[in-house]
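Technical note accompanying the year-one report. For the benefit of new consortium partners, we illustrate the data format agreed upon in the data management plan: each record pairs a sequence with a structure-token string. No post-processing was applied to the example shown here.
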Amino acid sequence: MIEAFASKAKTLAVIGLGYVGLPIALEFARKYRVIGFDINPSRVAMLQNNQDPSEELGPESFEGCDILFTHNIDDLRDANFFVVAVPTPIDQHTQPDLKPLLAATLTVGKVLKAGDYVVYESTVYPGCTEDDCIPILEKESGLKFVTDFKVGYSPERINPGDKEHTLTRITKVVAGCDAESLDVIAAVYGSIIEAGIFKAKSIKVAEAAKVIENTQRDLNIALMNELSVIFDKLKINTFDVLEAAGTKWNFLRFQPGLVGGHCIGVDPYYLTYKSKSVGHDPKVILSGRAINDNMAAHIASKTVKRLIKAGKNVANSRVLVMGATFKENVSDIRNSKVYDLVWNLKDYAVQVDWIDPHASAEQVLHEYGHPLVAEPTGKYDAIVVAVPHNEYINLPESFFADWTTNPAVLIDVKGIYRNRKPKELVYWSL
């Protein structure tokens, strides 16, 4: 099959052109003919003009690529190898929301032909590909799984904002429905992945491997968050403790903080959902989730208590929240827990101004219903540095003096100012 792709006798298609799908599509398109499909016409229009809506890739990333960006399903009929890279979110009840995945599967099923391959990259629970997706492919195509078409799974490992661990530099896990498909899928991905390929024993193993990667991180951060609550009561700075403990060679360097984004704050719920469906109550994983989900409320409570300690009337207080994205130096606002912090502060009747140098004001207003302001205005009774963007790390003391009343409160969520606390401010960090 590689030879057919190299000669452009066969075509690859990537379904979903977001943070995961676009880098894959462009990397393949440097060697092969690719169809990039997305249901969002405005996104497709931007991509056709060499613009990444996610702002992760520059115009130069599109150069030398043989790719057709489209939202027309008929264009997919020319493809022979489909990569499905659509979001897999959770709903308001923290249950898996498979609607985007199943809709993408329905689309592929309508154009699937004998001899085609379908590889899923979306994070799911073990068994989802075979139990939920393949029946749709069979029904829509009228073809028989394995006999007529093959399916595989290759979990995405894209880390937004990370310029070191990029697509080609990360070991790619692949799995197939049989030995033949495993070899073909490994060869296809192996042709673009510099870091190498790992062949998983089965599709379910690959699905499970992906979902526990972020579950493990979630639990480690939950431990740090719980420690931060304990150390706060003991009047010890958590980051000072971690700095000391980190001198041991095998200490894991996790930090407390708000756990949002599309992966760490979401993926564990896919595993716990599946766990419950087979009769096991996953206490440790859900405990970690509860701790992390409560951190925004914890930080808001600490902010209000510090305002009271500074002699402020909470109902008349103005607070500046700095940072809206789910982590530093990215524009991604998906599942940002900073909004939970803003919401909790507003619940105390605090007036909140919200700024971020990376986030789209339009997207924030649409997603969360609270506007960003272009810059601080007037004097604030508290400043909450929620996301340690590069623009915030080296702010001079005069910045805080210019924008705050006296006395005022500085809530430094990630502890970036702990060794140079601005004078005249009531300081607190996790």
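Partners are asked to follow this layout when depositing records. Residues 211-291 form a domain with the N-(1-d-carboxylethyl)-l-norvaline Dehydrogenase; domain 2 fold (CATH 1.10.1040.10).
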